[in-house]
Request: fold
Amino acid sequence: MESVTATRKETAATTGQSPDTTSAAAAAQSQQEIDGFHLVLEGLKLNGIDTIFGLPGIPITDLTRKAQAAGLRVISFRHEQNAGYAASIAGFMTQKPGICLTVSAPGFLNGLTALANATTNCFPMILISGSSEREIVDLQQGDYEEMDQLAIAKPLAKAAFRVLHAEDIGIGIARAIRAAVSGRPGGVYLDLPAKLFPQTMDAQAGRNSLIKVVDPAPRQIPAPDAVARAVELLKGAKRPLIVLGKGAAYAQADADIRALIEKTRIPYLPMAMAKGLLPDTHEQSAAAARSFVLPEADVVMLIGARLNWLLSHGKGKTWGGKTSKAWGGQKFIQVDISPQEADSNVRIDAPVVGDIGSCVSALLAAIDARGSSAWTAPPEEWRNAIAERKNKNVAKMAETLAKNPTPMNFHSALAVVRDIVKANPDAMLVNEGANALDFTRSIVDMYKPRKRLDVGTWGVMGIGMGFSIAAAVVSGGQVIAIEGDSAFGFSGMEVETICRYGLPVCVVILNNNGVYRGDEVNPTGGRDPSPLVFVKDARYEKLMEAFGGVGVYATTPDQLRKGMEEAIRSRRPTLINAIIDEKAGTESGRITSLNPSAKKV
Ligand code: FYN
Ligand code: ADP
Reply:
């Protein structure tokens, strides 16, 4: 399939020179022929992909140029990991695979953390990386950026494919899209060797080889007996609880999920990225009574939430078990698209396997079929006990938030953020850090679905700017990023990207001069600082100013409020360096128990 033209273009591609400029003959021939570059782009466009997040370089530089010329939006980053995180969260927001494009070996590896994170979090994403010459790589003859990328990606991806011939590009893209979004979504790797791009084939045959994927994420209807079993268990419960996970948010079945909760009047607990699926101020929310409802519930229905570490594996003291691994006595219903998820940690008494939209609507239909008088709300005793615990926690929180200490602490700064988010419920909230994450999660209420994006299943630091950029690009609206000063450091250089694309992102750094807190000292009295502290009084806001954005130095809640309000009014890229007490913060935030040597403060 490779023509003379292809070989010439290929030489140009591997030397980084634009193949378009190699010869006039190539231009004439391209009337009847299509090359690998255009087949890739047309294959993506055919499937509704309109944005690529990436970083140009050999051998994909020209692909990014041609993508822009072909009308795709190309968002070019400073580091592939951030482009990867952006692609993955775009996938979460849209149910379409987010595309991350990288160069070979090192660029590929930089994108791989994001790919693995996407797989772990069930975000649909395709990492497309250029790669070096197969024959040389396989004989380990020392090619430029030599690496067997496909083999390395496989264990970290839901699926991994390589395309060697132009006529297979359509199939490769179709397979990657299906793998990313069908069933449990995940990260997919697509390896495109440098040699593929300049290959040419007959244009008509090439276009015919492209595939528009039909029904990429088919509905999966749950079995009626599984639905009946779940409803029976729920109906017999004295102290039922629904846990909503980010799978429920991903499913975009918002109205039915709300109807199920309101019709059954069962209290619910949102996992972090499910906050806002119903407004956090909803009277049935048990978020402020978390440590009460988990051990006390008798039947728990999980909707798109796994019983992993974030839910203490469904057992142990969090769930009322007598020892750290003992079952607490709850019966579980699990609604999930993955048939293998049930029984992964404790017995699931009623698995309901299917897509959440279909499952929730089947559950609603089964409840309705019993007639409205047959379904009664959970016992008042249960609802009152939750309300009592919740009111106590909310009152305690209100008291803490009302304080105005000098310097600011997490609470007084986040009281401002809480008001701003309430006044701007459509804004996207990105959140990472340790204390900055944990306090924001419980203090800042969310009002709409899929507005909160955070570190997810892995507790990964570094998602901040990548998620913010994607959130702004996909939603077209305001983004507020609440960042620990340590967390921000992982992706801070992307403020240049934010400025370059003029995105309405307001970054707030809760700056306490270090990892967890900023008051640690070197125990030897030596010259080096403690490994946990940063430069004191660092002026992070100047980083944004350096690229033409707005920097704000805020030492009081009023300055923080003014800075955020102005950022939202102007839609200008803004970084607010919110100085908080360097003694504020606990080692590992609220997950101190997972840190074997956590310093108790
Ligand atoms: C929650 N709470 C509230 C409210 N919402 N009180 C008042 N008002 C409101 N609105 C209460 C809630 O009942 C808890 O108190 C407490 O606040 C904390 O709530 P949260 O955050 O829901 O619960 P918890 O125990 O922290 O949740 C466990 C967790 C969570 C594992 C799900 O910590 C988590 O998502 N952690 C991720 C950590 C992470 O990834 N870190 C990154 C690495 S950091 P009680 O009911 O009294 O307990 C590296 O070091
Ligand atoms: P959280 O961390 O919020 O608890 P998890 O990531 O642990 O959420 O769980 C998400 C679950 O949702 C996964 O088990 C995944 O299989 C499931 N899931 C994702 N999308 C869908 C969908 N459309 N329908 C059903 N289940 C889904």
